[in-house]
Design goal:
By secondary structure, the protein is of the alpha+beta class. It has 2 helices and 2 strands. It is 22% helix and 18% strand. The radius of gyration is 18 Å and the shape is extended.
Length: 65
């Protein structure tokens, strides 16, 4: 079985990696692919999520005291 990891553009930039893009059909947007797992190939997409705007409630409570 083939195991394929796919990284989002944001993760690729964060890692400062120069990973190759998956091939795409002519006329379709590059980087927008449907990943399908089957008995021969297992696909997993890795994302980078920016949580910098999440409020840490313990810090909020301390600032109110």
């Amino acid at each position: 079985m083939k195991f394929q990891l796919c990284a989002s553009n944001a993760l690729n930039k964060y890692l400062k990696a120069d990973l190759p893009r998956l091939p795409h059909e002519p006329g379709k947007q590059a980087g927008v692919n449907t990943l399908i797992s089957d008995s021969n190939c297992f696909n997993w997409q890795l994302q980078l999520i920016d949580n910098s705007n999440i409020i840490n409630f313990s810090d909020f409570k301390k600032s109110k005291e």
